[in-house]
Amino acid sequence: MPIENNHSGQSRSDDRRSGTVDPTEDPSDDRFADCAVDRRTFLTLSAATGAALALPGSATADVSGEAMTDELAFVVNHTPEEYEAATVVEFATQGALESFADAYPTDPDPDLRRPPKAVVRESPAPAAHAHLTADEVADVLERDGIERLDFSPGANPWWKLESPYDDGVFPPVEEARNYVSHGELGRGLEHLETEHPDRVRVREIGESPGWSNRFTGEDPDPQPIHLAEVTANVRDEESFASKEKVVYSLSIHGDERAGAESGCRLLEDVAAGRADDFEPLLEDLVLVFLFTNPDGWVSRKPQTEIPWVEAHDTNFQRGNASVFEEQPIDTNRQYPTIGWTNPNFRPAEPDGAPDDYSDLVPDALAIVDHLRDYDDVAFFCDYHGMYTADHAVFNLETNAPLDHGGTHHLDGINVGIGEAMQAQWGGIDAIEDDVATAIEEMYEWVEDGSEAVPDGDSYDGLFDWGTTYDSINYQVTGGFADWAGQPEAFGGLGATAVSPEVILSNHLVAAQKEWKPYSSRHYVTAYRISMRTCAELTARETSATVATGGQDTAYVASDELTRSSADLPHTDDESGQGGYGQERATEVRRSHAVMGTGPSAQSSATVEAFDSSHSLFVQFDGVRHATEGSIRLRNPNETVVREIDLTAKADPTDSAARTHDYEEAFVRRPQSGRWQIEVESDAEIRVATTMIDADGDVPDPEEVLGYEQREYSVDPMRFFDDLEPFLEDGEIEAMTVLDVAIGRLFWDDFSKCRYDTLVVSHDDGIEHPLYMRAIETFVELGGDLVLTDAGVNLLGELEVGDAASIAPEDVSDGDMQFATLEDRDFDHPLLAGIRPRQREIWKGSQLGYTTAIDQPATTVDPDAFREAGGSVAGTHPRWEVDDGEPVPADYGVGAGTLSAGDAEITVLGSVLPPARQTELHPFGMADYAVSFMGHTLLCNALGFQQRRYEDGELVKTIGEIR
Q1: For residue 455, is pLDDT > 80?
Q2: Looking at the whole model, is its pTM more than 0.90?
Q3: Do residues 625 and 597 make contact, with C-beta atoms less than 8 angstroms apart?
Q4: Residue 381 in contact with residue 530, Cβ under 8 Å?
Q5: CB 546 within 8 A of CB 404
Q6: How far is residue 182's CA from residue 906's CA, in Å, rounded to a whole number?
């Protein structure tokens, strides 16, 4: 793929512009207040000065001494002069310890803004732990009575010494020296297993790709993936296998520390019997603590060489050490999820993985392989961290299909977490001061942190939930929790799965990951509440049913809705269904560039599209480090088809901006000619382009990703088959267009309906007069009609009730970027049980839809609908690209009802669409992808009441029986 540079050469300036920050520095000081250089200029210049101080392998100081370990010598001599090395000091005498304590303050900060400079202990031998600069290390070496100095990063100051665990393994947040280190975790887990072998079993289930280690010279230096199983009688294999598993994935993104910090402390308390609320659960559950991303964790050590960070700023990294086509790999995009697979990702399916995957994603491959060995993973929780938001914690409903029971199990856990957080704090005001202070520290240009304190209504700003799009305004493919939630038949775990996000556990360019006990204690508490509630409700006997009032429902099936792998040009289906089985050429052209800031960085690049080009993907990594600028993608006519406003994304006080961790652009069937990518940014943006050329409508996944197409046959009407087992009464039955046309909706004399409700989700048969007349008769006799998706087109042809006023031209098909319902009337019966956060009706990726504007909806003109007497519950936006941004162009009725005598006609414009096969989907498809909102819309439209039970007691109902 040709790439044209506007500037020669490429720079690899510091990925995070603020350099290393002194942990003891007073955060209230405004370092730019009296400075002639503004903040953004400083951030840019600091990269160059930092690089001069700490180029890999070059010394910045010359501190030495016999008492000093080689590792500590390397750290203090190869970091900027203000860097404070975590140093453990062993003394020969008590007097030497006292002399040290007089020189280095050990008093804790009463506000918990920072850990004290030093802490000391007297037994079993006098020792201290301190954060020391190179000059301070030199000073200590000159003191009398110094026996040994060693580099000891982590939370527990003594983990490298004899008897390190007299006061516990992982100290409380308020007493911790810093974030728990990866090495400290491994040693601590070994200790817990030794002390509590009946409860704790520790495994190393695989390795990370590994960074280059500047100290040891190992390149790469892979790190073990630690996993701990905690339960009663953990080594009783028969008992272990029979128990339900609750899996906690902790900090899959290395710079989102809340999961790991919470999980290791809870693990210790449960192991030691100090967690009373977990004690009764251990007979029935196995708690699995998975520390998912060791590379993102150890990247903080100065010994680690990160290719795209020349001036090592000792910060955590989002992904692992792998680079694919010069693009850092996001560890939470590399799992083999059903539906659309982004060709920039490397999905870690162990069965048939290409050889290079073992180098790129060995961690994900090992994790998938290990978790598949568990019997009965009931619940899976993948803990993340976010910037600022309108609630302290979000729970993201994963992109995995849930049946009625799974839908209610997840909703029940969400309610339980919200109630438990409210019981803990009452509301966000209980921690508001700490949150505001942390915001001011993390975002130095924010003068008043209270502007960004969560102000939502759900549980007084503490907790809310919805889909990924509902909560953080985008969708993904290849997510870990999405894979875990897939049915086992499709390679997943069949778990009820969720991804929590907590504020202040992620960072932008000027927000170095400094240990802030005063704020970290709150996210550790929030996630402990989450972990406890997930376990409690998994152990509890929960169930859900659907009450119909004895009503029977029919739905019209159609082969037109079925999608099969046999339809694809590159498959050779041996099932007898057919399959083209033809050789269809697919070619992949990839390239990359570093763009944005710096005197030699590129500001633009081009990529060529041909008549055979199937799709163009452009991925932008590093956008979260930018504080101003923009990104534009232009087509050969120089029209901007995608624009990203980096300045708006960087404002932490604007919750609507919802800063993404990455950005991408997708263009299907790109216009032939030269496409141009333009970047203006105060941070480096790494740009990866993938152009797929295909002879046919569908690219071959084996050519693009290395995997053969998995066989599948999917039909959205299976939603009703899956719902029927949960009915308390009544039946749901399928019939064909022909069945309807010949009168099977009625009893023999055609005077009464055989069913109470008819559902039509397609327009197959719309030109069949007997079929349409039978539906009209059904409604005239009092049967309720539910029209969904393309079935809404029938509304323009029906001559019955209020529908008679709707003309065919009042109904139209369109596309959305995401299947959302807007302008909602929450008093409408169709929206009973649906909350304001919940807007997304179904999740596109698992049905083969992308992040472009391709999700279908059939809507009715709002004026025509209301003039006909219709009641509107909400609208669907029709999307278009305006100045490079996908925006709603207009709105049509997406949910509403019309009267027809004693009957009711319900319109749901987008809820059960057929799968889309035009993009890569090597691991198959889902039948349907309804969210909690979509599930509830359908049940309300059918006149059903959803009922949830816990330990046999009815705890919640949604909707009313019609």
Answers
A1: yes
A2: yes
A3: no
A4: yes
A5: yes
A6: 56
